[in-house]
């Protein structure tokens, strides 16, 4: 903790979930250095968690930097699928709207962040969590792969030892812990666990126990788990049945015939930007917000924005005809040229993407 705060100063923040990760705030206090804390308010937390946030702010004399989901996105999700759709088709879509995208916005203002991940929290996904790493999914303020450092200072600490520390230091804790809750998230997706049950069994209990991550730490999940997502088994061609990405009115979903027609046109009415993606790919998930923002900025500009799912049976075609190397691959189809131009950079923030498009339009 001390090394992290010393190196990154005001460009690092602690991610606080309202559970036993309050230990991170106590460790930061003990260093004597200034520190920042942020939290994701999904709008569906337990009343006890909101009270706990207030207690923590008063105990430490700090102001937690709350991040909220986009109201329009939440409204669209609830109006189209109801308040509890995650019980039927998995938690990923709701978590992406309420947690992952707000987290992405928070991290874009940082160079590093600090989490309370521990190896013993989730044997299926966190056994290999290192103490410090280059974030495999999200980007920091400088943009691009490697622009964000992730500290997991309690990665090697046992849960029992965290609790001994909290009791010794007389740190305030969430009152839900006294009611049998160990891992605490949103109210509809969290329940107490019985003696002998693992702490993560209280989260998304209706899903596959191997993939119990909400997307904040999606980089922990191995590709073979992602391809057979906890929301359902893989289908016959190897594509996971998990929720699609880049769903937006300004992003056109191209079929195989659609992308083939686009390739054949030498004189297009308008230029196109198309991303080749796979929903299970963590890097595609990480750039989702930037790509949707790009589409919204280009709406009405005369440039079309599309996506083409290029995994499974389409992968060989995409590699041969669309210059697919790895996911995501972004292509620009000029107005008066048949061959698309491949975006050459690993920077996938909206400003870099706009610069690429503007240079070629």
From TrEMBL:
Keywords, sorted A to Z: Iron, Iron-sulfur, Metal-binding, Oxidoreductase
Keyword match Metal-binding: yes
Example GO biological process: sulfate assimilation, phosphoadenylyl sulfate reduction by phosphoadenylyl-sulfate reductase (thioredoxin)
Classification via InterPro entries: PAPS/APS_Rdtase (IPR004511), PAPS_reduct_dom (IPR002500), Rossmann-like_a/b/a_fold (IPR014729), Thioredoxin-indep_APS_Rdtase (IPR004508), Thioredoxin-like_sf (IPR036249), Thioredoxin_domain (IPR013766)
Domain Thioredoxin: 245-361
HAMAP family: CysH
Protein name per the record: 5 -adenylylsulfate reductase 3, chloroplastic-like
Species of origin: Olea europaea subsp. europaea
Source organism phylogeny: Eukaryota, Viridiplantae, Streptophyta, Embryophyta, Tracheophyta
């Amino acid at each position: 903790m001390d090394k992290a705060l010393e190196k990154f100063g005001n460009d690092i923040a602690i991610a606080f979930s309202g559970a036993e990760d309050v230990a991170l705030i106590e460790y930061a206090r003990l260093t004597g250095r200034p520190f920042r804390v942020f939290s994701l308010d999904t709008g569906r937390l337990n009343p006890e968690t909101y009270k706990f946030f207030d207690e923590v702010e008063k105990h430490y004399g700090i102001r937690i930097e709350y991040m909220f989901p986009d109201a329009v996105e939440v409204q669209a999700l609830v109006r189209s699928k109801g308040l509890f759709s995650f019980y039927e088709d998995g938690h990923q879509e709701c978590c992406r709207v309420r947690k992952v995208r707000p987290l992405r916005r928070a991290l874009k203002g940082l160079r590093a962040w600090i989490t309370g991940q521990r190896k013993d929290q989730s044997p299926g996904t966190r056994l290999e969590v290192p103490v410090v790493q280059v974030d495999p999914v999200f980007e920091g303020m400088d943009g691009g792969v490697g622009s964000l450092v992730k500290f997991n200072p309690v990665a090697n600490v046992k849960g029992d030892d965290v609790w001994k520390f909290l009791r010794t230091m007389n740190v305030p804790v969430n009152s839900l812990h006294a009611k049998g809750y160990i891992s605490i998230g949103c109210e509809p997706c969290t329940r107490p666990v019985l003696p002998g049950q693992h702490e993560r069994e209280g989260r998304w209990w209706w899903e596959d126990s191997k993939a119990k991550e909400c997307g904040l730490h999606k980089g922990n999940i191995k590709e073979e788990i992602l391809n057979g997502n906890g929301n359902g088994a893989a289908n016959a061609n190897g594509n996971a049945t998990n929720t699609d990405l880049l769903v937006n009115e300004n992003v056109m979903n191209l079929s195989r015939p659609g992308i083939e027609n686009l390739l054949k046109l030498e004189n297009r009415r308008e230029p196109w930007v198309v991303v080749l993606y796979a929903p299970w790919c963590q890097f595609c998930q990480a750039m989702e917000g930037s790509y949707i923002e790009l589409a919204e900025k280009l709406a009405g500009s005369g440039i079309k924005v599309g996506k083409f799912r290029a995994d499974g049976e389409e992968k060989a075609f995409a590699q041969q005809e669309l210059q697919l190397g790895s996911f995501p691959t972004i292509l620009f189809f000029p107005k008066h040229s048949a061959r698309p131009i491949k975006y050459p950079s690993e920077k996938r923030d909206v400003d870099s993407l706009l610069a690429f498009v503007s240079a070629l339009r």
